[in-house]
């Protein structure tokens, strides 16, 4: 049973989320638990305190073990931050078989050849994602297995992360005594939970709007074509509310969650909030409409920055499948209306697709990245047992090197 357990860890700035799934006989994952605990020692995807982050991760694992009754011994880990970079590459090999038929070995060798690219100093390769193959003079081939030719070429997209960030994150996890299956770019994992292959083929963007930051990934033709990390999220809305109401951040956060909306036009000027209910010593009344105006202004700014990223790649207002929102701040009332207005695109909340579970939290959009890690791990499990698949080509060499490096430091 333990070998069929797949665990995903999403370590955010304010919460550590763990989702535990189990493969059923058909190979589909059934979600057993979705755990959320407060996190410390992390800011905008970067570990700022190893001790605090390790404690948060350990607390999340312990809670998951209590719910499932199964020890957490291996985990898929999401990573994010502004240090993630993309690079295109190509790999070319000669087909091995005398009859020219292409098999798994040829595909593996071509992808491995594409790794021979000049990596910036202090960066590690996270993923090598094959986009298209070419056989001799035939181009734009999605799956070359079983085809015939002499020369096989693959165009890949290489995702890299800063070595120090990866090592700090993995060190925290190894300190809890849990092994790491692989480190995955979290916005890509999230997209696997909320986007269909057809959406990715036509063109779709996934925005993970968290408390401290926003991640964006744009897909077209079935492949990721652009990613961005924006250092703005729900905490910036809270900060503006605190400044506007002249109250503490804690009180502003409670007011935002209970009364915050990005649609001030729908609120009467007569509706008021008593600050004394949230801040001891205060006794003033504040208009809910004024609070909504503050929230709307900051939410508009978030989507203006997202639209700026779409303009960079010429996709502003031009994604047929629209934008899918996930993350804790995506639950803010009225955020979809503002997003549709500012982005001029269809916008929806990213609820998981085709997931079996009796756990209510699975339908919480803040759990999507952790849930996506479970689906990512399940797809890689299928790949390892069923041959090559073009969407999930996992290269484990760098992760295994990191494992060995940290295990050598453990007593």
Describe the 3D structure.
Among the domains are: 85-161, Dna Ligase, domain 1 (2-Layer Sandwich); 197-352, Nucleotidyltransferase, domain 5, CATH 3.30.420.40. It has helices spanning 50-68, 104-114, 163-174, 186-194, 197-202, 234-245, 249-259, 288-312, 335-343, 368-386, 397-407; strands at residues 5-11, 15-23, 29-38, 42-43, 46-47, 74-79, 85-94, 123-135, 138-141, 151-162, 179-185, 204-209, 214-220, 223-230, 272-274, 285-287, 323-326, 347-349, 356-357. The protein is α/β, with parallel strands linked by helices. Helix content is 35%, strand content 29%. The strands form five sheets. A six-stranded mixed sheet has the order 11-6-1-2-3-19, with helices on both faces.
CATH fold naming of the domain at 197-352: Nucleotidyltransferase, domain 5
**What general outline do the C-alpha atoms trace?**
globular
Strand order in the sheet with the most strands: 11-6-1-2-3-19
Distance between the termini: 29 Å
Kindly name the structural category.
Answer: alpha/beta
| Unreliable stretches covering 5 or more consecutive residues | 387-399
CATH architecture of the domain at 197-352: 2-Layer Sandwich
Write down the overall mean pLDDT: 88
CATH class of the domain at 197-352: Alpha Beta
Instruction: Provide the CATH superfamily of the domain at 197-352.
Output: ATPase, nucleotide binding domain
Share of helix among residues? 25-40%
Number of strands: 19
Order of helices and strands: EEEEEHEEHEEEHEHHEEEHHEEHEHEEHH
* Cα radius of gyration in angstroms: 23 Å
How many DSSP H or I helices? 11
Question: The biggest beta sheet, please?
Answer: 6 strands, mixed
Q: What is the strand content?
A: 25-35%
């Amino acid at each position: 049973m333990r070998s069929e357990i797949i665990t995903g860890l999403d370590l955010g700035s304010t919460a550590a989320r763990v989702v535990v799934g189990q493969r059923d006989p058909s190979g589909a994952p059934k979600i057993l638990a979705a755990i959320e605990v407060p996190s410390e020692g992390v800011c905008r995807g970067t570990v700022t305190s190893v001790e605090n982050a390790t404690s948060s991760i350990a607390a999340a694992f312990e809670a998951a073990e209590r719910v499932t009754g199964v020890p957490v011994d291996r985990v898929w880990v999401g990573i994010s931050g502004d240090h993630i970079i993309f690079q295109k590459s190509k790999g070319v090999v000669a087909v091995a078989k005398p009859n020219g038929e292409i098999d798994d070995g040829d595909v593996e060798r071509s992808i491995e050849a594409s790794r021979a690219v000049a990596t910036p100093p202090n960066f590690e390769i996270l993923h090598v994602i094959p986009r298209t193959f070419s056989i001799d003079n035939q181009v734009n081939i999605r799956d070359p297995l079983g085809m015939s030719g002499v020369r096989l070429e693959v165009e890949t997209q290489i995702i890299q992360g800063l070595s120090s960030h990866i090592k700090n994150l993995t060190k925290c996890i190894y300190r809890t005594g849990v092994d790491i299956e692989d480190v995955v770019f979290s916005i890509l994992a999230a997209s696997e939970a909320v986007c269909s292959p057809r959406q990715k083929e036509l063109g779709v963007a996934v925005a993970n709007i968290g408390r401290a930051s926003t991640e964006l990934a744009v897909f077209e033709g079935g492949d990721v074509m652009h990613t961005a990390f924006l250092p703005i999220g729900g905490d910036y809305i809270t900060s503006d509310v605190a400044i506007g109401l002249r109250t503490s951040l804690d009180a502003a956060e409670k007011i935002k969650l209970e009364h915050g909306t990005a649609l001030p036009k729908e609120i009467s000027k007569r509706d008021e909030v008593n600050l004394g209910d949230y801040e001891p010593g205060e006794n003033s009344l504040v208009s809910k409409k004024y609070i909504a105006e503050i929230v709307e202004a900051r939410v508009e700014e978030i989507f203006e920055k997202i639209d700026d990223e779409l303009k960079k790649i010429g996709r502003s207002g031009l994604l047929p499948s629209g934008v899918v929102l996930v993350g804790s701040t995506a639950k803010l009332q009225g955020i979809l209306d503002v997003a549709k207005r500012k982005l001029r695109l269809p916008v929806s909340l990213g609820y998981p697709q085709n997931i079996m579970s009796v756990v209510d939290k699975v339908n919480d959009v803040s759990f999507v990245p952790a849930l996506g890690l479970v689906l990512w791990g399940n797809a890689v499990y299928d790949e390892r047992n069923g041959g090559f698949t073009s969407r999930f080509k996992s290269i484990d060499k760098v992760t295994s090197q990191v494992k060995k490096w940290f295990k050598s430091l453990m007593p």
